Amino acid sequence: MGNSIEQTVGDLQEQETLDAVKAQLAQGADPLEILQTCQKGLDIVGQKYTDGIYYISDLMLAGEIFKQVSAILIPKLGSQSATTKGKVVIGTVKGDIHDIGKDLVVNMVTAAGYEVTDLGVDVPTERFVEALKETGATVVGLSGLLTLAFDAMKETVQGLKDAGLRDQVKVMIGGGMISEDICNYTGADGWGNNTQQAVNFCKEWIK
Amino acid sequence: MSADTKYAKNLALINKAIACEPVERIPLAYAASAFSALYMGVPLSQYAVKMGLQTDVSLAAMKKLGGFDAQNAPSSGAPFDVVLASLWLSKVQLPGRELPENTVWQVLEKESMTVADYDYIIEKGWPKFQNKMFAKVMNSPWDFKKFIIKTILRTPFTNRRFKKDGVVVLAGAIGTYPFEPLCGGRSMHNFFMDLYRMPDKVEAVMDVMLPHMIKGLIMGGKGSKGLGVWVGGWRSASSLLAPKLWDRFVFPYMKKMVEAVTDAGLIAILHLDQDWTRDLARLKELPAKKCLLNTDGMTDLREAKKLLDGHMAILGDVPSSLFSHGTPQQITDYVRDLINDVGPTGLILCPGCDAPFNTKFENMEAFVAAAREFGNV
Known about the structure:
The structure holds two protein chains of two kinds.
Chain A: H1 4-10, H2 14-26, H3 31-50, H4 56-73, E1 87-92, H5 100-111, E2 115-118, H6 125-135, E3 139-143, H7 148-162, E4 170-174, H8 180-186, E5 190-192, H9 195-205
Parallel strand pairs in A: 1-2, 1-3, 3-4, 4-5
Chain B: H1 3-18, E1 29-30, H2 33-39, H3 44-47, H4 53-64, E2 70-71, H5 80-88, E3 92-93, E4 106-107, H6 116-124, H7 126-137, H8 144-164, E5 168-169, E6 171-176, H9 179-186, H10 188-197, H11 199-224, E7 228-233, H12 243-249, H13 251-263, E8 267-272, E9 291-295, H14 301-308, E10 313-318, H15 320-325, H16 328-342, E11 347-351, H17 361-375
Parallel strand pairs in B: 1-2, 2-5, 6-7, 7-8, 8-9, 9-10, 10-11
Antiparallel strand pairs in B: 3-4
Helix pairs in contact in B: 2-4, 6-7, 6-11, 9-10, 11-13, 16-17
């Protein structure tokens, strides 16, 4: 398989990517291999974002392209399955009902090959603890747009400690107003105000 | 000093700052709606919906804090869900109704309009669609006509009350360009995908909307007797959009709106949330000394000063996170550094965006004290 799909994903060419995926399937290409090639394309997108060439809207388009590609390829995987790089739990913390930033992170972390459990918005600490125990995820992402989210994030991190999970789980927090000070305040391991940072944390923390 | 004299002095000071001329002290503006209620012991469930109470509470809080020269954008008096629904085309949840008491109101960022609605706007016009959408997203017994009439009647009265306290109202009316209500109505993800997938259609819709939005904003601004109007942007920030999208769907509309309101004799207060640093240089294309760059702590104001010095004054920008979770010393340091780096000309000190509901009382008091200590030139 050539690099054309990797490049069309990297160049955010939506229709060209979908056409190429369908064409390669028709020629009998391995769906898993096509999916992995698309993920390499997403790495190009991530690098371009890091380099200041792409912006949030571009990341959203990349996530959308990957979602459509996955919808075509996953049903064709049969007994094969895409290898999961690791498990991640993500939610918007209690008191905050904003889901745009959280959804973006869910899409991009999923597209990067991680199995994501999306808990939705206004998520209490107990629900994060339950989900981490149920899934065995080793990374949790706490999202929040408002300043009220900072205390809820801190309470959630404390909840993980109380549940005996803190040593096994890395915590990333995200939102437009998050900063290093807020990260220190909440006791999280890392922070970001863009989706790529969340993907980078997953890569760094899940080996 | 009489209220009239105090108002005249404050107005002269503010006008000097906007014109980037030397000032004897750096003006201090207030923007802290929900904080004001909690600072004065008023439940947010009442503050959010009771006409008149919002003005009472803001004025009382400003007085208790020791007085301000200006108020950024006083509440129109309409319930917050009504005001925000008109800007976002989205449902709004209120404390004491959908949300717990004494938490802040929140926009429910869900899709409320479809791609088919673009054709409706093109065919039937923006006002008709606005009426239809308003009915759909409102949880209160308000229709769009009632909102407009009540607002138009109320704002001159509200602004006179500020004037009686010697306080200059900067934005007598608040508005935005087509990007924001469409983004709210379609929801951010869907709208951003529309920009890539059907750019010509979105542009045609925006072209239909803009003249109505400009007309409404100027009417509101002139009627209010405030100094200017908000031209607000939040999801249209440079940090969120690819340059080709921003250049096509944001700046041309912002520019036309700003030119129209300044031609009408109003100051354009560019209330820009999020990070706009990438495109600060473009703001030089806007009329000189007739705009205020009103940011929320995320845009690089040092860069803004470098690029816009003498052209556009700055209104801002102590970040919300510092008000809610910082210390008085951090607030003091922030204000001192801001004045040193960005002032003393072309600067009006103000909380970034709107100080959050959970601002620590001592932090707002530190903000005022720091402005007094370091603001004398």
